[in-house]
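quick q for whoever's on today - can somebody do inverse folding on this one?? i tried earlier but teh output was garbage lol. tokens:
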């Protein structure tokens, strides 16, 4: 994948994207330094692209994960919301981390949140209509005057970088009336929800905070100007786009090409559209995609498969984006929103997680994204433990997962696939068997090129097998649910330990 419609790994083989954060990381403003200090170690683990958390000041200051967007020009530089640094550090530290990660050979993606603003500096009196929270198309009261937090003047920044200030004309609606101290959803007078959004809740344009009016020419021009400033200031390569299902589809079809033209750069983009319906994702991408998208339908299939007694493994990829459009599918097992306690909690059960990662890392279709919490755990909260097999699976992807793929997905409780390897990667090839907790075996074809070879079990604890003259062998799996076999010559890859990151304060 190398054109601007995809993640843009610059021709890298078997790319791996890393989500470079989890939700409850310590609010000690050290993460940018941590990433810079460990950039080479992260790259050595097989990561070719890294998605960084939102870098700008949020309404909760140093405690804001970054999605409660206050000032997108404040990257930890100005005394606003009770702090100069963000949760992750200062602007200078962010720019240095981006430079270090890029110098280590990784594509760097910035998390971009343009759907809403929060933590306004002042209120306004605005005429608005209260709408039904379950169906935002339906008014439930006559128009009235409410007091809204919609004045964003950024007094701590004093107009540095941009003198643009926000008022109610820049927004479509809000969820709080300061006058009555009441929470609901209000549509501002003279405004309409965008139609090219998901039809959940009638119309799911409104998500939270003050909902940005992306079709207001003044706002649109400012966001394009800001995007160019951000790319040029930070040095990031591309963007991860938040909350697409709540935003006008046409906005990013204007915004991304405008940034690509203005900067003369590829600006790879990955969009988050949280839907279980692959057809909805394909419709958003359209006939001429301008980005890749996270395969949320596959995430849910992995989630349900982790409850092993209730899922048909032979159908694991049915109705997923990676099945429908593998060139634009970013596959993932977990992310910050699926962690325990989060709004989209749907974490894959630990016993199935190695198999889930094998399904996205070792196959030929899609680009896998590894979650920080699965690679390193979440010691701050203890809600996720590191997936111990994950570093090895990443190494196997980088070194061995090449060549034609042969699937045997013909049983509900037992499936397998193999990669033949190729001449460009001597010693490559692998075989994978997965089960829903049953001990069994699967005959897989690994290619005539491997006839007579001895293959060892890298994951699963089984003995070695000899590949038959026809290029096939019987591969065993135990109740643990995953076995991965590789040529015996790959032993050094298996024996290499996990990358250990170091925290330097």
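ok took a stab at it. sequence:
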């Amino acid at each position: 994948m190398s054109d601007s419609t995809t993640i843009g790994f610059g021709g890298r083989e078997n790319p791996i994207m890393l989500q470079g954060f989890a939700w409850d990381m310590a609010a000690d403003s050290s993460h940018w330094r941590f990433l810079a200090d460990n950039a080479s170690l992260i790259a050595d683990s097989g990561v070719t692209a890294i998605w960084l958390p939102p870098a700008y000041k949020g309404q909760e200051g140093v405690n804001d994960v970054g999605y409660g967007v206050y000032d997108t020009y404040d990257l930890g530089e100005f005394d606003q919301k009770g702090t100069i640094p963000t949760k992750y550090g200062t602007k200078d530290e962010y720019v240095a981390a981006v430079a270090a990660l890029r110098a280590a050979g990784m594509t760097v993606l910035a998390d971009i949140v343009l759907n809403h603003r929060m933590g306004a500096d002042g209120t306004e009196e605005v005429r608005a209509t209260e709408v039904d929270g379950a169906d935002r198309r339906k008014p439930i009261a006559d128009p009235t005057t409410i007091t809204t937090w919609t004045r964003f003047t950024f007094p701590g920044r004093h107009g540095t970088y941009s003198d643009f200030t926000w008022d109610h004309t820049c927004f479509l609606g809000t969820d709080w009336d300061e006058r009555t101290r009441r929470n609901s959803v209000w549509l501002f007078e003279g405004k309409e929800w965008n139609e090219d959004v998901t039809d959940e809740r009638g119309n799911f344009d409104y998500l939270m905070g003050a909902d940005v009016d992306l079709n207001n020419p003044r706002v649109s021009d400012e966001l394009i100007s800001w995007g160019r400033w951000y790319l040029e200031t930070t040095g990031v390569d591309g963007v991860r786009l938040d909350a697409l299902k709540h935003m006008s589809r046409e906005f990013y079809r204007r915004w991304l090409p405008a940034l690509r033209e203005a900067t003369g750069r590829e600006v790879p983009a990955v969009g988050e559209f949280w839907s279980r319906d692959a057809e909805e994702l394909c419709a958003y991408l359209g006939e001429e995609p301008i980005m890749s998208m996270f395969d949320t339908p596959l995430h849910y299939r992995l989630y349900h498969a982790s409850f092993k007694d209730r899922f048909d493994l032979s159908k694991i990829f049915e109705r997923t984006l990676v099945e429908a459009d593998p060139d634009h599918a970013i596959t993932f097992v977990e992310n910050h929103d699926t962690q325990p306690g989060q709004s989209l909690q749907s974490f894959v059960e630990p016993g199935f997680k190695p198999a889930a990662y094998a399904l996205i890392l070792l196959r030929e279709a899609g680009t896998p994204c590894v979650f920080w919490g699965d690679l390193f755990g979440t010691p701050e909260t203890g809600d996720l433990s590191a997936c111990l097999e994950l570093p090895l699976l990443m190494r196997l992807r980088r070194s061995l997962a090449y060549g034609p793929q042969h699937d045997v997905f013909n049983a509900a409780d037992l499936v397998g696939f193999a990669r033949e390897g190729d001449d460009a990667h001597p010693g490559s090839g692998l075989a994978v068997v997965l089960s829903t907790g049953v001990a069994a075996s699967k005959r897989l074809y690994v290619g005539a090129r491997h006839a007579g070879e001895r293959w060892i079990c890298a994951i699963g604890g089984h003995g070695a097998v000899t590949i038959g003259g026809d290029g096939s062998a019987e591969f065993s799996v135990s109740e643990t649910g995953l076995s991965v076999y590789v040529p015996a010559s790959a032993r050094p890859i298996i024996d290499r330990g996990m990358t250990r990151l170091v925290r330097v304060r």
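fwiw The mean pLDDT is 94. also The chain has twelve helices and 25 strands. so keep that in mind when u check it
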